[in-house]
Design brief:
The chain has about 200 residues and is an alpha/beta fold. It has a single domain, classed as DHBP synthase (Alpha-Beta Complex), CATH 3.90.870. The chain contains five helices and twelve strands. Helix 1 crosses helix 5. The longest helix has 12 residues. The N and C termini lie far apart (about 35 Å).
């Protein structure tokens, strides 16, 4: 299914359709606060495996997830008071920033095979925070592209495309995005280690 939306003026019916799709275990393409992402509920191992197939991604490469609040991040990751102070700073900065934290093993093991770190971002977009909040769990956010190839800043070519079984089940067209991937830092040791500027 293909839908065109305005992320800044999301309609309640559109939001309900997206959340319902996620809860039904569907893989979606959606506009994030950085670039177009492939996503599903971070608790759904089957859907995460499908994303790996779509991207032709290495099995052991970890995924990023979006949360709706610092409270949700604390539910799924170990966060000290010192880390919380840093998170409040980086998540209120202008540049979208993803942070690697030690997870609590409450999400699918497909996210971070053999790794204690989980990349987490509190998105700038109210649209994204509403989706995650109503879905009730973090959602996977990995770039929409084949691994190693350029990312897409639009999805309008899906408007007339007949979807195949391997394709995502829901394509959300939010227009052309002119952003770049988020900054990525490792906060597991309580200090900021920059992984991607």
């Amino acid at each position: 299914m293909y839908i065109k939306i305005n992320p800044k003026k999301i309609l309640s019916a559109e939001l309900a359709l997206i959340v319902k799709s996620l809860k039904q275990g569907k893989v979606i393409i959606y506009p994030t606060d950085t670039i177009y992402g492939l996503g599903c509920l971070a608790t759904d191992s089957k859907s995460i495996k499908k994303i790996k197939l779509i991207k032709k991604r290495e099995q052991n490469k970890p995924f990023l997830v979006l949360v709706s609040s610092l409270y949700m991040a604390k539910k799924y990751c170990h966060i000290s008071k010192k880390q919380e102070i840093i998170l409040r700073q980086v998540w209120t900065a202008a540049r979208p920033t993803s942070v690697v934290l030690k997870h609590r093993n409450l999400l699918s093991g497909e996210l971070v095979p053999k790794n204690d770190g989980l990349a987490v971002r509190l998105p700038k977009s109210d649209f994204l925070r509403k989706i995650v909040r109503q879905a009730g769990a973090p959602i996977v956010s990995t770039s929409f592209n084949i691994s190693g190839e350029p990312v897409w800043n639009h999805v309008d070519f899906y408007a007339e495309k007949k979807l195949k079984k391997i394709d995502p089940e829901l394509i959300i067209d939010g227009g052309i995005l002119k952003n770049r991937a988020s900054k990525l830092v490792d906060l597991r040791n309580g200090t900021i280690k920059i992984i991607r500027k």
